[in-house]
């Protein structure tokens, strides 16, 4: 299910399936995109930020067209204890790999992978400078 922002409309709450993973998409070419995600974060229950939220940053293949600093998005991921994935959706191979990663994360968050919990995403949040 897709939503352009949060909160979700309440009139269909009784029909809404359980939410296992929230993926916030940020277009690196649009400051509005980041502001919309930041505003939406206030509507997410704090318990989701332990392995059930990730940030997907698109458009990273065009550094000269960026309106958002990648460092700002990384800080957002750190602040909310959530992984940040960078991708270029216009390249089919990267798009497929990104979709596979998101699907695997969803399977883990939904509890479909025995012995693995959503807290397994913590290593994804570590900065390479921490090693």
TrEMBL record:
Record's keyword annotation contains Metal-binding: no
Superkingdom of the source species: Eukaryota
Compartment list: Chromosome, Centromere; Nucleus
PANTHER family (alphabetical): CENTROMERE PROTEIN M
One GO location term (cellular component): nucleus
Keywords: Centromere, Chromosome, Nucleus
Gene3D superfamilies hit by this protein: P-loop containing nucleotide triphosphate hydrolases
UniProt-listed Pfam families: CENP-M
Protein name: Centromere protein M
Organism: Rhagologus leucostigma
Keyword Nucleus: yes
Gene name of this polypeptide: Cenpm
């Amino acid at each position: 299910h897709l939503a352009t922002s949060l909160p979700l409309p309440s009139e269909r709450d009784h029909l809404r399936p359980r939410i296992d993973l929230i993926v916030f998409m940020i277009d690196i070419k649009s400051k509005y995109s980041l502001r919309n995600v930041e505003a939406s974060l206030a509507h997410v229950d704090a318990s989701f930020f332990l392995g059930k939220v990730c940030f997907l940053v698109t458009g990273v293949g065009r550094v000269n067209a960026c309106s958002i600093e990648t460092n700002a998005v990384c800080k957002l991921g750190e602040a909310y204890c959530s992984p940040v994935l960078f991708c270029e959706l216009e390249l089919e191979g990267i798009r497929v790999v990104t979709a596979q990663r998101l699907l695997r994360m969803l399977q883990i968050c939904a509890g479909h992978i025995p012995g693995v919990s959503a807290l397994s995403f913590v290593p994804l949040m570590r900065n390479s400078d921490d090693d």
